[in-house]
Each structure stands twice: as C-alpha cells, then as structure tokens.
Backbone:
C-alpha cells in the first residue's frame, strides 16, 4: 500500500456541486498538506494541518475547506466547485524534523 | 519575497549529457532547499536536498550546487538517461517545512 493514498484519482464534476477529496497516510506523520498543481505555476499550498486540532490556511484557501478527521486522514472540500478549480490536487505529509514531503499520487479534478 | 524562480521551463538533453536546472530565491529565512522529481501520473518525490551551510551535495548522478550570497541553487544531472525524463521542481522551505515555496517546474526530456 502507498504511504499516502488519495481518492478519487480522477473526478469530473459540475459547476456548483460540492465535492470532497480524501487523503490517508500510513507514515505516522503529524503534518499534512493539500497542494494544487497547475501547469506553469508549480505547487501552491491550499491548507495545512500540524495535528488534529490545528488547521491553517495556505496561499490559495478561498473556495476550499478541510477537515482533519484523525492523525492519518485529511480531506479537502470544494463547497461549490467552479471551472477555475480544475487542477491536479496533491496531499502530502511531513514529520517536521526532516523537511521533505511525501506526496500522494494526486487527484485530477475537472469542473465543467 | 516569497517567490522561487525556476528556469528553464523545459529542457531537452542528449543521453549521456548534463542537465542543469536553476532556481533563485529571495527570502534569506529559507533554510532547506529540496528538489522533487515527478513522473506523469505520480506525485512529486523528494530527490535530493541541501541546507545553506554547504555549497554542494552529491547523491549518485544528482548534484545540488548552492550559492548563498547569490541566493541561487541548481540541480545537475550527470550522464542523463531517458529514465530521468520527468518534471523537476525546486523548493525553498523554512519553519520545519511548514512554509515551502515551489518553483514552477522544469520538464526534462532526455533523448535516447
């Protein structure tokens, strides 16, 4: 099993719909992150969480919300999807001492 | 002041050649500089990283060169192979990794 699992892998949804992307990890890391990848823009931070009771906005949090259900689970919601939220979404974890991230395989989201 | 500028956007190298990707940062508070490698359909994976107290780090065919005074760092891939064809992201981190800024990415293609 992958260290960081994202579901679904692909999703097409309609404008205005609510959608949830899920992430679970087996690394035992406290820190979890949601990033968005767009061509030519790299990876931009949406939200991050350092433990179950700690949620923080990132660079581009407008239109998104998150829930940290357990140490191992961190979900991202689009309350009312819009076409410019079409992107690749990645969940990542880190242990805070070693700065490197472990990324999931991503969710490709298309909003039509 | 939070940007990380990465160049080139794309790179084509002959098999056996040297691939060089450059990044520049602005904020001197960054204290960890990782490079990630991403294959199609996969999440980025940590490739190699350096801290600003050293000027070079080598792992196999991959070398990071770091110039603290110029606020620049680069990835060198020696003896480039077709299997190295991927997108490479540089990044700059601080605060135990919670603030990580990614470059826009470089698509490398190694011709056989």
Residues:
């Amino acid at each position: 099993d992958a260290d960081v699992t994202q579901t679904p892998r692909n999703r097409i949804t309609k404008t205005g719909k609510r959608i949830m992307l899920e992430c679970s990890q087996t690394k035992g890391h406290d820190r979890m992150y949601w990033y968005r990848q767009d061509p030519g823009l790299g990876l931009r931070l949406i939200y991050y969480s350092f433990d179950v009771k700690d949620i923080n906005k990132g660079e581009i949090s407008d239109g998104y919300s998150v829930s940290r259900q357990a140490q191992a689970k961190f979900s991202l919601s689009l309350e009312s999807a819009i076409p410019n939220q079409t992107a690749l979404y990645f969940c990542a974890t880190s242990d805070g001492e070693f700065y490197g991230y472990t990324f999931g395989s991503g969710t490709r989201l298309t909003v039509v | 002041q939070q940007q990380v500028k990465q160049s080139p956007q794309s790179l084509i190298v002959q098999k056996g050649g040297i691939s060089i990707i450059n990044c520049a940062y602005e904020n001197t508070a960054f204290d960890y500089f990782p490079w990630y490698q991403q294959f199609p359909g996969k999440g980025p994976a940590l490739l190699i990283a350096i801290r600003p107290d050293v000027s070079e780090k080598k792992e196999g065919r991959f070398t990071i060169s770091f110039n603290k005074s110029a606020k620049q760092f680069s990835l060198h891939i020696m003896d480039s192979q077709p299997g190295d064809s991927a997108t490479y992201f540089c990044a700059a981190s601080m605060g135990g990794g919670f603030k990580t800024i990614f470059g826009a990415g470089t698509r490398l293609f190694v011709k056989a």
In short: The mean pLDDT of chain A is 94. The interface with chain B takes residues 4, 31, 40-45, 48, 50, 56, 90, 92, 94, 96-97, 99-106 of chain A (CB under 8 Å). Residues 46 and 61 of chain A are 5 Å apart (CA to CA).
